[in-house]
């Protein structure tokens, strides 16, 4: 019996030593990859430090939609996008069918696919991809920028950082000037009476999430001269019907989720019927992707046009 | 329980199966790598997929095997000590306890060193284990009571994790993965956390016979010269360490600790000497298959391994409950 036991032990330790040897191989592999030729590089400051990027990167992988928007604004197209497997969402954002590889979901982008694309630059979201920064850095120079729950201003900053990273700062400044002009024009066009408050919100089957003055769409609407009904430092605020009727905004802009909606239940309620926005027929339903998912300079302009069109209709 | 005829044969058959599945798993993912290609990459004659293999597939394979085995062995030990077929780290809430403490550390001390995480997970697992021991000893709890208390404790911990998720949405991505359990983004740096498990598993297999003596009942065990309390605490600590470390690396993956020991018992009977290594191998196989499936079903999207184990495991758990009821 004892002999057999020893034999079994030997097998187990053999397996362990194989595993440890494999572990050794793995770590050796990492270091050999790094010493590539040091051509000209650009150093970019981002949320997780500084990264040097080879000049004029061509192959770019992006892990959030706002970065697709930013590249679009600079006249570039990413080769890989974390698109949650929704090609039509990207098509709508870019306005055209583009050739790219899906790298999985924004929540769990597929590192294998990213590495197989051999990118020159990876643009990741600070909130979602903090944890895998090291893994991404192993594949290619990575910058982590604010996108998820970011404000409009933060998005413009990200746009500038991306422009620096891809060597298109001039184009970016031009584009931003143009952007400011567009906003000024839209602001003029908007025939809304002053002192009206607006509240954009995302409606799902069980929640009504107000987007405050610090959210991307909320802050952008303020830039157009529409005061947000909820002035808050937190970007989003979950609300029930009573809270909503307490705030009672003049204009409601609803970005509805797919499927059943909480507001459908509210419609029969007298609190809902007595909302100023409902009484004055100022409840507008807008595209969820455009208003809350894309978040970028180009989509902001589209949001602005959308707003002018909706509010000026009457 | 009947004693089956060829425990060694079964064990080696499963080890061979594990090896085969391991090699297949290396090929599965968003980028398919053929077994031949894998071998030429490992031997160094080809370089085309080396980066993917060494940076993602191989560390994930090792993590799946070690953690699958850890959870299964921990489950087998707990079932033995508590004399309860429903005891396993996830059913009795130990996994969720470890998860809660780990999430707490991740969120409140984001700059803490990587060593703090496994320690926190261990403490979380230990706290839940102690509460459970108090219940099971003070009241002489029946199998179902213990499972219920565990479910309740697990729910409390889950609520805690959810609180952190709402309070600190910045880290939602991390905490979400913790709740289901996933091997996504895990690599060599996480394997270092598992080194104690790699040492403990063979150690516990050697001392498996102690568990059998405990199973004879305390009086006989004392009569046989065993320090029952001491042995029981050592075994329990090992189970808690194995669970805590596993959770620290991949989050709360369920059902492996429950099912693997049951499969093991069906194959080789309840003698711990055979039960522990066979359960461990089955557990490793289970998690490895779950992770491989999660990676391979809808690439490039990954399904967290915890969801796959739950889909397979939950029906089996119900079946077990029914069988226990009939007894």
Automatic annotation (TrEMBL), chain A:
<dbReference type="GO" id="GO:0005886">
    <property type="term" value="C:plasma membrane"/>
</dbReference>
<feature type="domain" description="Fe/B12 periplasmic-binding">
    <location>
        <begin position="59"/>
        <end position="314"/>
    </location>
</feature>
<dbReference type="InterPro" id="IPR051313">
    <property type="entry name" value="Bact_iron-sidero_bind"/>
</dbReference>
<keyword id="KW-0813">Transport</keyword>
<feature type="coiled-coil region">
    <location>
        <begin position="162"/>
        <end position="196"/>
    </location>
</feature>
<keyword id="KW-0564">Palmitate</keyword>
<protein>
    <submittedName>
        <fullName>Ferrichrome ABC transporter substrate-binding protein</fullName>
    </submittedName>
</protein>
<keyword id="KW-0449">Lipoprotein</keyword>
<keyword id="KW-0732">Signal</keyword>
<dbReference type="Pfam" id="PF01497">
    <property type="entry name" value="Peripla_BP_2"/>
</dbReference>
<comment type="similarity">
    <text>Belongs to the bacterial solute-binding protein 8 family.</text>
</comment>
<dbReference type="InterPro" id="IPR002491">
    <property type="entry name" value="ABC_transptr_periplasmic_BD"/>
</dbReference>
<dbReference type="InterPro" id="IPR054828">
    <property type="entry name" value="Vit_B12_bind_prot"/>
</dbReference>
<keyword id="KW-0175">Coiled coil</keyword>
<dbReference type="GO" id="GO:0030288">
    <property type="term" value="C:outer membrane-bounded periplasmic space"/>
</dbReference>
<dbReference type="GO" id="GO:1901678">
    <property type="term" value="P:iron coordination entity transport"/>
</dbReference>
TrEMBL record, chain B:
<keyword id="KW-1003">Cell membrane</keyword>
<dbReference type="InterPro" id="IPR000522">
    <property type="entry name" value="ABC_transptr_permease_BtuC"/>
</dbReference>
<keyword id="KW-0812">Transmembrane</keyword>
<feature type="transmembrane region" description="Helical">
    <location>
        <begin position="115"/>
        <end position="138"/>
    </location>
</feature>
<dbReference type="GO" id="GO:0005886">
    <property type="term" value="C:plasma membrane"/>
</dbReference>
<feature type="transmembrane region" description="Helical">
    <location>
        <begin position="191"/>
        <end position="209"/>
    </location>
</feature>
<keyword id="KW-0472">Membrane</keyword>
<comment type="similarity">
    <text>Belongs to the binding-protein-dependent transport system permease family. FecCD subfamily.</text>
</comment>
<dbReference type="GO" id="GO:0033214">
    <property type="term" value="P:siderophore-iron import into cell"/>
</dbReference>
<protein>
    <submittedName>
        <fullName>Ferrichrome ABC transporter permease subunit</fullName>
    </submittedName>
</protein>
<feature type="transmembrane region" description="Helical">
    <location>
        <begin position="230"/>
        <end position="260"/>
    </location>
</feature>
<keyword id="KW-0813">Transport</keyword>
<feature type="transmembrane region" description="Helical">
    <location>
        <begin position="12"/>
        <end position="33"/>
    </location>
</feature>
<feature type="transmembrane region" description="Helical">
    <location>
        <begin position="145"/>
        <end position="166"/>
    </location>
</feature>
<feature type="transmembrane region" description="Helical">
    <location>
        <begin position="303"/>
        <end position="321"/>
    </location>
</feature>
<dbReference type="Pfam" id="PF01032">
    <property type="entry name" value="FecCD"/>
</dbReference>
<keyword id="KW-1133">Transmembrane helix</keyword>
<dbReference type="GO" id="GO:0022857">
    <property type="term" value="F:transmembrane transporter activity"/>
</dbReference>
<dbReference type="InterPro" id="IPR037294">
    <property type="entry name" value="ABC_BtuC-like"/>
</dbReference>
<feature type="transmembrane region" description="Helical">
    <location>
        <begin position="58"/>
        <end position="78"/>
    </location>
</feature>
<feature type="transmembrane region" description="Helical">
    <location>
        <begin position="90"/>
        <end position="109"/>
    </location>
</feature>
């Amino acid at each position: 019996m004892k002999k057999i036991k020893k034999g079994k032990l030997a097998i187990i330790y053999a397996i362990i030593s194989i595993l440890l040897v494999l572990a050794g191989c793995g770590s050796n592999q990492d270091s050999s990859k790094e010493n590539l030729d040091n051509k000209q590089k650009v150093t970019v400051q981002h949320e997780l430090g500084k990264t040097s990027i080879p000049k004029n990167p061509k192959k770019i992988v992006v892990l959030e939609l706002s970065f697709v928007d930013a590249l679009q604004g600079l006249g570039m197209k990413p080769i890989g996008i974390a698109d949650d497997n929704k090609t039509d969402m990207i098509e709508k954002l870019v306005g055209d069918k583009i050739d790219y590889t899906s790298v999985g979901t924004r929540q769990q982008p597929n590192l294998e696919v990213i590495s197989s694309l051999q990118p020159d630059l990876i643009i990741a979201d600070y909130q979602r991809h903090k944890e895998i920064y090291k893994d991404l850095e192993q594949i290619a120079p990575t910058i982590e920028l604010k996108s998820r729950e970011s404000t409009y201003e933060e998005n413009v900053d990200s746009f500038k950082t991306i422009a620096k990273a891809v060597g298109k700062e001039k184009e970016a400044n031009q584009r931003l000037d143009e952007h400011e002009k567009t906003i000024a024009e839209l602001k003029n066009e908007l025939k809304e009476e002053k002192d009206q408050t607006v509240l954009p919100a995302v409606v799902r089957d069980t929640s009504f999430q107000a987007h405050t003055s610090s959210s991307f769409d909320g802050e952008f609407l303020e830039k157009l001269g529409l005061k947000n009904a909820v002035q808050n430092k937190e970007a989003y605020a979950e609300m029930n019907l009573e809270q909503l009727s307490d705030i009672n905004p003049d204009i409601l802009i609803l970005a509805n989720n797919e499927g059943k909606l909480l507001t459908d239940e509210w419609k029969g309620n007298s609190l809902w019927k007595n909302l100023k926005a409902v009484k004055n027929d100022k409840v507008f339903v807008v595209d969820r992707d455009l208003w809350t998912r894309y978040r970028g300079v180009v989509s902001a302009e589209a949001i602005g046009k959308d707003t002018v069109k909706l509010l000026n209709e009457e | 329980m009947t004693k089956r005829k060829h425990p060694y044969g079964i064990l080696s058959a499963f080890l061979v199966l594990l090896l085969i599945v391991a090699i297949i798993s290396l090929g599965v993912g968003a980028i398919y790598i053929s077994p031949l290609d894998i071998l030429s990459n490992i031997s160094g004659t080809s370089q085309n997929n080396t980066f993917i293999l060494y940076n993602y597939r191989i560390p994930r394979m090792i993590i799946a095997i070690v953690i699958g085995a850890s959870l299964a062995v921990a489950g087998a030990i707990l079932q033995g000590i508590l004399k309860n077929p429903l005891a396993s780290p996830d059913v009795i809430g130990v996994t969720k306890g470890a998860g809660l403490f780990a999430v707490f550390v991740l969120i409140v001390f984001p700059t803490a060193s990587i060593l703090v995480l496994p320690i926190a997970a261990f403490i979380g697992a230990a706290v839940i284990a102690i509460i459970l021991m108090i219940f099971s000893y003070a009241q002489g709890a029946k199998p179902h009571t213990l499972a219920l208390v565990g479910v309740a404790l697990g729910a409390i911990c889950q609520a805690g994790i959810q609180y952190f998720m709402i309070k600190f949405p910045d880290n939602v991505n991390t905490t979400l993965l913790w709740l289901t359990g996933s091997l996504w983004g895990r690599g060599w740096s996480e394997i270092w956390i598992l080194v104690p498990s790699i040492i403990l598993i063979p150690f516990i297999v050697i001392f498996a016979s102690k568990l059998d003596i405990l199973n004879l009942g305390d009086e006989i065990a004392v009569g046989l010269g065993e320090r029952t309390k001491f042995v029981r605490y050592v075994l329990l600590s090992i189970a808690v360490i194995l669970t805590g470390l596993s959770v620290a690396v991949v989050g709360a993956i369920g059902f492996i600790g429950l099912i693997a020991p049951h499969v093991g018992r069906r194959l080789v009977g309840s003698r711990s000497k055979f039960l522990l290594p066979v359960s461990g191998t089955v557990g490793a196989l289970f998690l490895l298959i779950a992770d491989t499936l999660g990676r391979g079903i809808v690439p490039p999207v990954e399904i967290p391994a915890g969801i796959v184990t739950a889909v397979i495991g939950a029906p089996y758990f119900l079946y077990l409950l029914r069988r226990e009821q009939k007894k």
